[in-house]
Design goal:
Mean pLDDT: 96
Distance between the termini: 30 Å
Number of domains: 2
Low-confidence stretches: none
Oligomer: single chain
Number of helices: 11
Largest sheet: 6 strands, mixed
CATH superfamily of the largest domain: 2-enoyl-CoA Hydratase, Chain A, domain 1
Strand order of the largest sheet: 1-2-3-5-7-10
Structural class: alpha/beta
Radius of gyration: 19 Å
Helix content: 40-55%
Number of strands: 10
Order of helices and strands: EEHEEHHEEHEEHHEHEHHHH
Strand content: 15-25%
CATH topology of the largest domain: 2-enoyl-CoA Hydratase, Chain A, domain 1
Length: about 260
């Protein structure tokens, strides 16, 4: 399938999605949302892809929602349709069984920041800027910013960003735990691919179980989440990779995981 707002490539079990609306600084419009939703569905069911990287332009990962389309929203019903489409897409990314890495360079504002928040891990270039500036035009984040941001960086710091609309730079994002690593602009994709290659070498089912245990357990009370973790732990013992990993450890050799 040919995409108008995205570039997609895959090699050696790593998929790379590049947001490609440079004329609008990768602002999220309905077309990009629909195309990315379709592509995410494809990747979710593609056994040839073990890890996904989402990235953008050198100067902008995503500058938020497309304000020209936002200005056309005149009723709560129109607003509902738009926000549900965005939330549905970001939830698919968040709950994808495969690890998703955001490689962020330049502006990651509004919906662009929320897209990065939906990913499992975030690597930022030194020029990255993160923010939720929606308050400045009289609206609130609708793509998960009021929910995922506090869960990642804490309520107090998140409220400051949400209330003021002021952005933060890459180093501050790293300091407060919003990103996992800060690298030079030129090495961003190399670092993202390095991490993706490390993850694709892990036992796939165990990685899936970890992601499920963390994501689902986060919204449970401790007793329920521990019970859920136990079920995930038990399920692992039906896999070939678990047996191979244990055997390799005892034999003092590198395991040969096959994703089974």
């Amino acid at each position: 399938m040919a995409y108008k707002t995205l570039i997609y490539e895959e090699a050696e079990k790593v998929g790379i999605v590049t947001l490609n609306r440079p004329e609008r600084k990768n602002a999220l419009n309905n077309e990009l949302i629909m195309e990315l939703d379709s592509l995410v569905e494809k990747i979710m069911n593609d056994d040839k892809v073990a890890t996904l990287i989402i990235t953008g332009h050198k100067d902008f990962f995503g500058a938020g929602a497309d304000i020209t389309e936002i200005s056309d929203i005149t009723t709560p019903i129109d607003a509902h349709r738009f926000v549900i489409s965005v939330q549905s897409l970001f939830s698919k990314i968040e709950n994808m069984e495969k690890p998703v890495i955001a490689a962020v360079s330049g502006l990651a504002l509004g919906g662009g920041c929320e897209l990065a928040l939906a990913c499992d891990l975030r690597i930022a270039a030194e020029n990255a800027v993160f923010g939720q500036p929606e308050i400045r035009i009289g609206v609130i984040p609708g793509g998960g910013g009021t929910q995922r941001l506090p869960r990642i960086i804490g309520i107090g710091r998140a409220k400051e960003m949400l209330y003021t609309g002021e952005p933060i730079d890459a180093q501050e994002a790293y300091r407060i735990g919003l990103v996992n690593k800060v690298v030079s602009v030129d090495s961003l994709m190399a670092e993202a691919k390095k991490l993706a290659n490390k993850l694709k070498g892990q036992p796939a089912f165990a990685l899936k179980m970890i992601k499920m245990a963390v994501n689902e357990g986060f919204n449970m009370d401790l007793k329920s989440s521990l019970a859920y973790e136990a079920r995930c732990f038990e399920t692992i013992f039906s896999t070939e990779d678990q047996k191979e990993g244990t055997k390799a450890f005892l034999e003092k050799r590198k395991p040969n995981f096959k994703g089974k």
